[in-house]
């Protein structure tokens, strides 16, 4: 399986500028391929294949020679991204691909890394002898390898986040399937009140340091609204907000990594609700807190961490998980504000989210029993 390992890199100011420029070339290429695709479809219902895009890129390079200033692989990789965006759209997993603005386009992919096997040829991205990251047409960039790279590097993604830059290695690693243990199963209800409520009776809240940074960010945003647009202090405040944003998202990702790691280690089967997150985000009242809480990210992490540990993540039908009684199945309608489940059928009284987590576990186990056994 492929896993991501992320490290911070430290390009010089000149290199940062170059990387910024390369990203904008990638973005331009993406946007113009998207426009060409739309135009071709409108004119003749013709599809615009990846190889046709590559041919067009070759022509573009003759007209705009600056495109030759960057390695060609990340530029070609752009078309794969566009293809992928359309595939996701047709699968109804994403909206129709749109033109990318500066802030939406923050990474480029080097689809090959290191030395070509049995040859002296080096791909556009590799490690230099001194351990720096080496990109052709750019040079060496110091990298902080805070933990060893575990597995074979298949690809490299260079990513910009605010003012910082990262190298993300896509690493292939062998996993050994372990037998699923039905007795080590848990249901998790992810919510807004408490971050995660488990069917074993425990729960997890967002840690205090994360809440504190979020508060600081909120205050900084309020202050910005009182400053004069374009003034020196305004610009300073914008930079400050960017940095706080970065901090919040780093802290959140970190928290979710730790939580999902511990859960995947402890349990063999984890059941969660199969929420169509996109649908939920459309609901304006809840939208901010939901997308903020990074539920989708959490589910992804759980999914690959379970797989890595030989466990299983089961997504269950979310309908009525918080309404149905986990003891007798009676449906007890309640609005979002009612936090306690009181069953009219059997008299069970439980915390709303805990009741939901029990239902999720039960549905997960039912689904597990129907799954084919892999030996
Ligand atoms: Zn009941």
Automatic annotation (TrEMBL):
<keyword id="KW-0815">Transposition</keyword>
<keyword id="KW-0233">DNA recombination</keyword>
<comment type="similarity">
    <text>In the N-terminal section; belongs to the transposase 2 family.</text>
</comment>
<dbReference type="InterPro" id="IPR051399">
    <property type="entry name" value="RNA-guided_DNA_endo/Transpos"/>
</dbReference>
<dbReference type="GO" id="GO:0032196">
    <property type="term" value="P:transposition"/>
</dbReference>
<keyword id="KW-0862">Zinc</keyword>
<protein>
    <submittedName>
        <fullName>Transposase</fullName>
    </submittedName>
</protein>
<feature type="coiled-coil region">
    <location>
        <begin position="210"/>
        <end position="237"/>
    </location>
</feature>
<dbReference type="GO" id="GO:0046872">
    <property type="term" value="F:metal ion binding"/>
</dbReference>
<dbReference type="GO" id="GO:0003677">
    <property type="term" value="F:DNA binding"/>
</dbReference>
<dbReference type="GO" id="GO:0006310">
    <property type="term" value="P:DNA recombination"/>
</dbReference>
<feature type="domain" description="Transposase putative helix-turn-helix">
    <location>
        <begin position="1"/>
        <end position="44"/>
    </location>
</feature>
<keyword id="KW-0479">Metal-binding</keyword>
<dbReference type="Pfam" id="PF01385">
    <property type="entry name" value="OrfB_IS605"/>
</dbReference>
<dbReference type="InterPro" id="IPR021027">
    <property type="entry name" value="Transposase_put_HTH"/>
</dbReference>
<feature type="domain" description="Probable transposase IS891/IS1136/IS1341">
    <location>
        <begin position="169"/>
        <end position="283"/>
    </location>
</feature>
<feature type="domain" description="Cas12f1-like TNB">
    <location>
        <begin position="295"/>
        <end position="360"/>
    </location>
</feature>
<dbReference type="InterPro" id="IPR010095">
    <property type="entry name" value="Cas12f1-like_TNB"/>
</dbReference>
<keyword id="KW-0175">Coiled coil</keyword>
<keyword id="KW-0238">DNA-binding</keyword>
<dbReference type="InterPro" id="IPR001959">
    <property type="entry name" value="Transposase"/>
</dbReference>
<comment type="similarity">
    <text>In the C-terminal section; belongs to the transposase 35 family.</text>
</comment>
<dbReference type="Pfam" id="PF07282">
    <property type="entry name" value="Cas12f1-like_TNB"/>
</dbReference>
<dbReference type="Pfam" id="PF12323">
    <property type="entry name" value="HTH_OrfB_IS605"/>
</dbReference>
